[in-house]
Design goal:
31% helix; single chain; five-stranded mixed sheet; 4 helices; alpha+beta; 26% strand; transferase; EC 2.3.1.-
Length: 155
């Protein structure tokens, strides 16, 4: 099987969009997504990786690398990691994660982090299998619905 990991290009936007919508279990606004994607393509602190199989993007990992005051160092954060449902359980997520770790280290990052919804228990197991530890809580407030405290995927 012909497969590779590569940095995303502008014309990968629709494939990344489909993967992220699948991960979020909802259709995101395409116009806004395209604006953000194109801005990230020009931002040196962002790196979007594509796992391509037989010429088709079947996985993506979006990484942000930035200096953070509370670490006094450069940190990498996985913003999104998604593998097409039909391509799961082939080690694609592991390969994307390992590649992202290498790129982050090469960029001078001292740590890699990920924030993951509490409902994504399969993802938690995946990250623990990669050697990550759950040391943090993340709090959020939806400005559009501040009284909505229900945790659900696709929110």
């Amino acid at each position: 099987m012909n497969a590779c990991i590569r940095e995303s290009k502008a014309d990968d936007c629709k494939a990344v969009y489909a993967l992220i919508c699948s991960m979020e279990e909802k259709r995101l606004p395409l116009t806004e997504f395209e604006k953000i994607y194109n801005a990230q393509q020009k931002d040196a602190s962002c790196l979007c990786l594509i796992y391509e199989q037989e010429g088709k993007a079947v996985g993506c990992l979006n990484l942000r690398m930035e200096y953070q005051l509370h670490h006094a160092a450069k940190i990498a954060e996985i913003m999104e990691l998604s593998v097409d449902a039909h391509a799961r359980c082939q080690g694609i997520g592991q390969k994307l994660y390992a590649y992202a770790c290498r790129k982050a280290k090469e960029s001078g990052c001292i740590q890699i982090e990920v924030c993951c919804n509490r409902l994504r228990t399969r993802a938690h197991k995946f990250y623990e299998t990669q050697g990550m530890h759950n040391f943090h809580y993340k709090f959020s407030l939806d400005f559009l619905s501040p009284d909505d405290s229900e945790n659900r995927l696709g929110k």
